[in-house]
Structure formats: structure tokens, C-alpha cells
Amino acid sequence: MDDKLVEKKIIYQGKGNADYTDGTKVIFHIRTETCEEEPHVIDDSHKWTKPVELLFGKKFKLEVLEACIRTMLPGEVSSFIIDKSLLAPYPLVSKTLREAYGKTKVDKEKKPHHCCGMGFKEGLGYQDLDELVKTPKDLKFTIELIKVAGAGSYEKEFWAMTESERLESIPVLKEQGNVFYKEGNHEVAGKAYSEALGRLEQLMLR
């Protein structure tokens, strides 16, 4: 991480170590704002349905943000002022996070904007992000690292699995459903079967 382009300030010291391997899962809150005299808040995960989750080493689209979090200890709260030259992917990342975690969609423009900063032919659907594409800015990220789970210590979500892991997960879910059904827990069994079918459909579409 280039200290000339990223300025870190520790707000609350964490505990433990930051020796994270690829596959480590981190859960964190993030607040993004401009660095102007009167900052404009772009995103705040405290207002979303839940904190953000990230798996290290999974080619996160905003590499600088992953690099920042890798410097943090569990429980730490830090701010990072990041140079605009490193933030070209941020508007698209922000859009993805809003639609994955946001409580409500931000009011979208009726007509798409034509943006050239990142090669977008149409706008992202969020006026503030479209403006950020047109006029990149240095941004301040305040991150609270809530939880760290080492690789192999948690159950992977479907999107984070490899192709072989996805295939192997389907019969496992089916067998779990069978066990719950035999125990008379039909509601839980139904959820397991539905999840297995949903995963199978996604693989077939691929």
C-alpha cells in the first residue's frame, strides 16, 4: 500500500494480529465520504441491512480497499484517505454493495447518463455515483473491522465456492433435507431442498 496515495489514521486500536491468508473472511462496517470542507457521505453500511463481508484473495474489484483492511486488527476502527487515482472502480463497487446490502434503493434517474470515465455506456442508476465517475475525487473511508474468520473456519456462501465445491454442495444439502424430513422438521427440510434446487439451476444456466 503506497503511503503517498493512502493516508491511514487509527481511531480505535484493535487486538490480535493482521497476518491474514487468502480465504480469510472479514466482516466490517464502512462509511465513505468526500474530503471536502463539508464532506458528503456517499455510503454508510450502518444504514444497510447488515455489515459488509469480504473474502481476501477473491479478486475484489477495489484492490486498494482490501489492502487497507489487511492492515487492520480485529476490532480496529481506522480511516483511510485514498487518492482518486486508485478509486476508478469505486462507483461500480458502491453500486454493487448498495444493491446487495442496502435497505432501499437510492432514487434512480429516469434517463441513464452517458459516462466515459470508466467506459460506462450508460449511467450506474445512482446520480451521486454517476457524478463520481465524471469527476473523480479523493475519498475518506472509515472502516470498523467487526469480525475475522480464518479460511476453513466458516461455511462458504455459494458465490464464494469453486465450481467443484458448488457441485459437491448440492448432494450435501439434499442429504441434510432428508435428515430433517425424517425428523419431522418439514419446514427446515423444505428450505434445504429449495437451496439445493436453486444451486442446481444456477449451475445449469452456466
UniProtKB/TrEMBL annotation:
Chain segments annotated as transmembrane: none
Keyword Metal-binding: no
Domain of life per record: Eukaryota
Keyword Repeat: yes
Segments forming domain AIP/AIPL N-terminal FKBP-type PPIase: 16-147
Keyword annotations from UniProtKB, A to Z: Cytoplasm, Repeat, TPR repeat
Signal peptide annotation: none
Record's protein name: AIP/AIPL N-terminal FKBP-type PPIase domain-containing protein
Species annotation: Cherax quadricarinatus (Australian red claw crayfish)
